[in-house]
Design goal:
With 190 residues, chain A is of the alpha/beta class. Chain A has helices spanning 15-28, 75-81, 114-126, 135-147, 152-162, 171-182, and strands at 2-10, 32-37, 47-55, 69-72, 90-94, 108-112. Chain A has a single domain (2-182), classed as 3-Layer(aba) Sandwich (Pyruvate-ferredoxin Oxidoreductase, domain 3). Chain B is an alpha/beta fold and 278 residues long. In chain B, strands 2-1-3-4-6-5-7 form a 7-stranded mixed sheet, sandwiched between helices. Classes of the chains: A alpha/beta (190), B alpha/beta (278), C alpha/beta (382). The B-C interface holds B 49-53, 55-56, 62-63, 65-66, 68-76, 79, 82-91, 94, 111-112, 114-115, 118-119 and C 22-23, 25, 50, 52, 54-56, 58-60, 62-70, 72, 74, 88-89, 92, 96, 199-204, 207-213. Strand 2 (71-74) of chain B pairs parallel with strand 9 (209-210) of chain C, so a sheet runs across the interface.
Amino acid sequence: MQQEIVFSGFGGQGALFAGQLLAYAGMDNDKHVTWIPSYGPEMRGGTANCTVVVADEPIGSPLVRHPSAVIALNLPSVDKYEALVKPGGLLIYNSSQVDRPIYRTDMQVIPVPANDISQEETSAVTGDSGDARLANVVMLGTLVQATGILPLEAIEAALEAHLPQRHMRWLEPNKIALRRGAALAVPEAA
Amino acid sequence: MTPIALADYDVVYRRPDALTDVQTHYCPGCTHGLIHRLIGEVIDELGIRENTICVAPVGCAVFAYNYFNVDGCEAPHGRAPAMATGIKRVIPDRVVFTYQGDGDLAAIGTNEIIHAAGRGEDLTVIFVNNANYGMTGGQMAPTTLAGQVTTSSPYGRDVDLVGMPMRVAELISTIPGASYVVRRSVHNVANINKTKAAIKTAFQVQMAGLGLSMVEVLSSCPTNWHMSADGALKWIEDAMIPVYPLGDYRVADAVEPLTKRRRPDRSQNGSLATIPEE
Amino acid sequence: MAKELWKGNEAIAEAALRAGVEAYFGYPITPQTELLEYMAREIPKYPGRVFLQAESELAAVNMVYGAACAGVRVLSSSSSPGISLMTEGLSYIAGTEVPAVLVDIMRGGPGLGNIMPSQGDYFQMTKALGHGDFHPIVLAPSTVQEAVDLTYGAFELAETYRTVVVILADGAIGQMMEPVVMPPARPVMTEQERADWALRGAKDRERRILTSLHLSAEGLERMNQGLQNKLARIQQKELRWQETMTDDADLLLVAFGTAGRVCTSVVSAARRAGLKVGLLRPISLWPFPEQRLVELAERVQQILVVEMNAGQMVLDVKAAVAGRAPVHFYGRMGGVVPLPDEISAQIDKLVSEPAGGTGFKTGSNNGYGQPKAMPAANGVRA
């Protein structure tokens, strides 16, 4: 079995890190994994994306034309990847930032108000109005639950192991964000 | 006749241990060999022969490694300061010097010498300025004088087309990492002695870890200048020194104690001078 | 040893440190810069080892030359345009016969090109890494683990033959993360282990000279003959390649590096479709596994070479195959990585339009099941 997931968003939305979490979790669960970023000029402030392949067999191509799932953190990512998801695949998009309809009907689509959830959870920590820093992990939770690619606990373990030390106070909020995303893993259309 | 017993005599002149017992390939009257000898004497006097590595350039001195009795290698054209950096950085307790001509250092190798100086590499650079590319048969160098005829400036260096001669010691002296930058000449005995003293200081600067030291030496090229050996030495004095004034262009404070400088003697041309005013 | 997730560029740097590299000289250029940055961060933690950012690739390669002459394990890395600038020094290093390891994380060219993955340096690396008659050993990894293993072994290889060893990867390998088992850290060379040609100061011995200059024609010819003899030994002893499902293949893919690993996906897909497709992935690009290709060419119906360039290795394939089988080429340029579906489409085309009347056999035996995606390497020497 092999799944290819594209994580895409603006630089700073954590698309690359969410992809790394999945790759770490896959590796720690004896899967073969690759993580490859787009590293073009867009890495300087524009959109950032990465492709993660998780497989039971050694991975040939780390890049695919039609990923089995896409996490789109912003509108440009939806615009770019809606057409590319494999038929029967999964598009998870950040409905806090994307207000257009999804046109394709031959794939699963899950809208996730990731910024809103993140704001709720971060404001609980910071006491102010919160921010969107957890949006990536919210959507990762949705992906993991919807695809069954790995147990959620594997992502939690990856968070514990790989969240930068200076962000450790965000460990629990990350885990909550992950679970809240997972709870949304009900397809809107099949 | 009574045979001469050598033991009864004092040795007053001999080949330094730091030079090999071979004939050089330099042209008659060229002062490269003389500068080699000064370096050899200095290496002997400092007792560093077994600890020294020579980086030869591309140019007339390409075979310098054959003449110094030390470990040696040969750099691509102009790259000696980079190659020497590689050596010095991995064996910092050794003494590493480059021996470069004006085409090598002042044209193709300007980047390397400037950045070696910029990093303050503990290297000693002997920069031999003879105002032309000697090895390739006397073409125009960055140091060729205005109006000087060479095979690639057959009508004389036209400064409107190719600019004025480049003053390397002055240039390098502006770089803080170069702690000892001087210009000397070997056109007469007094200046030969001053050149040797400067070379000695330059090596001592390196041994003390004070940064890059460079001695620019005005040197004769009778073959390509189409002059006699004597005439070439006189041309250094008459034509080169006015363009390339001798003197100490940078002597960092930390270097000062190593120099034991004599008072500048302004009575004759080519003497030690302070940095000239333009 | 536990697996860790490593980015290619950083993994290569760490592998070099573990191999006992004592000095690194380099210059920033995308997409290899993380390698330089990793060295800048890590080398200061090892007393006595040297990191220096040079003013140019030209200076960097000559610093490598100097350090190599001093007999230390030395590394540089760059990407295509920077390698072009280094070729002068690499030719001197080859002519002087001192060991050095160089990593090229290839990007799109010619000129400034772009920073995307490319294999456009194949010619430069295998045929023309500077003036004069020489070839470095060129090793092309297709995974981060392989990049680590090849880098780890590259220094001994360089020292054994007193030659330049190039780790030739592309932006994809440099930038991607994969699980890696790191090899154990080796100590740096002791003074006693230094080569007997190294310039360390002529203490209690004759002076040593390292030069690439031999003025007499006969002398330089002698030197070159020695160099060629050495290269011939390398051609015999240092061939590396990997085969995937070549035993019964009718169509042989030949691809290296990233294109090679993409082709393993193609082989899997083809086998599922009942097509007898196999893959020869050269790991040593110089020396090129010519003889093995000859053997395979005797057996297969046709050969498809896939590269991320306009067709460079394909010339070596054609030269080796020498008409034994038709050789086709599929390449993408400009930093485009060919994806499995488009290569599969090429195969379908070749299968449906058999070349020279030789029918390409579709698999009559469809009982392959899941192919072994990465079988034990036939030609790999560890």
